[in-house]
Design brief:
There is one protein chain. The chain is mainly α and about 100 residues long. It has a domain at about 5-40: Histone, subunit A (Orthogonal Bundle), CATH 1.10.20. The protein is about 40% helix and about 5% strand. The protein has 3 helices and 2 strands, in the order H-H-H-E-E. The protein has helices spanning about 5-15, 20-40, 75; strands spanning about 80-85, 85-90. The protein has a two-stranded antiparallel ribbon with strand order 1-2. Strand 1 (about 80-85) and strand 2 form a beta hairpin. The protein is flat, with a radius of gyration of 23 Å. The two termini are about 35 Å apart.
């Protein structure tokens, strides 16, 4: 299956996004590349591969959370669109 411009427009509509013609053209190619990658994975012979072979070799790379006090509130809120008291006010996205 080849990705068409109409497919990209349909996906954008589902995601409530709008793209220019140039962006649609670029995204069509990018989606096609992604699908080609999955097609190549689908063609791999994995019959003799044990899915649990590497399960015990995984390492957690996350670190522990730590609280940090940020002292400069003005600097923190400088890029906020609008404020209501000490809260950042964002546009409503749900009806």
């Amino acid at each position: 299956m080849k990705i068409s411009k109409e497919d990209v427009v349909y996906i954008a509509k589902l995601a409530k996004l709008r793209f220019s013609e140039d962006e649609i053209e670029k995204l069509t190619g990018e989606f096609e590349s992604i699908l080609d990658y999955f097609r190549s994975i689908d063609r791999m012979d994995l019959e003799n591969v044990d899915p649990d072979e590497f399960a015990d070799r995984r390492e957690t790379v996350s670190r522990a959370d730590e609280n940090v006090i940020f002292g400069d509130r003005e600097k923190l809120f400088r890029n906020a669109g609008s404020m209501r008291g000490t809260f950042i006010q964002v546009p409503r996205i749900l009806d």
